[in-house]
Amino acid sequence: MRVVLAVIGRAHGISGDVVLDLRTDRPEERFQLGSSYEVELPGVDRPPVQRLTLRRYQAGPKRAVAGFEGIGDRTAAESLRGIRLLGEVDPFEEPDAWYPAQLRGVRVVLPDGSAVGTVTGVSSLPGQDLLKILQPDGSTALVPLVKALVPEVDLERGQIVIDPPAGLVAARPEKPAK
Fold it and tell me: Is the pTM of this model over 0.70?
């Protein structure tokens, strides 16, 4: 399965390096010198380059600094901003991890089986990931993808069970005050 490993951010310095916004929890495995990555630029059929090969890498906890072959100055580095670096991963190597592509289109229900909607995507934020759920009324609910609120993800059955607090989704109305 092809997934986004990182998104290229701003230029770093004058020698063609860039800041990477990491989207993998295994950067030490995914970013080895000499590795080559397919690239994707949202909304563009053909980005300025088709593949990038890693020539330099310095790790950080959520961000890293990288240099790529053929990118030797700040101007060239800035032209890469927004490009997504893609890699192949085995979706079964981590049983309790899911990729956004696996979750899109999956039905979402409450613990009692009431329909909530369908996952349309996942937003990756610094604090946690959010499930984007299209509800039957056409609105979108954002539910933090944490065990307390999303106790069950069953891709074989094509179903995600969420247990949100009142008011977070349309299917779970506010309880009347006493």
Answer: no
Alpha-carbon gap, residue 104 to 49, rounded angstroms: 28
Q: What domains does the chain contain, in order, with CATH numbers?
A: 2-88 (2.40.30.60), 100-161 (2.30.30.240)
Q: Report the DSSP beta bridge partners of residue 38.
A: 51, 86
SS (H, E, C) 101-170: HHHCCCEEECCCCCEEEEEEEEEECCCCEEEEEECCCCCEEEEECCCCCCCEEECCCCEEECCCCCCCCC
pLDDT in the model for residue 95: 59
Distance CA 162, CA 106 (A): 12
Do the beta carbons of residue 150 and residue 178 sit within 8 Å?
A: no
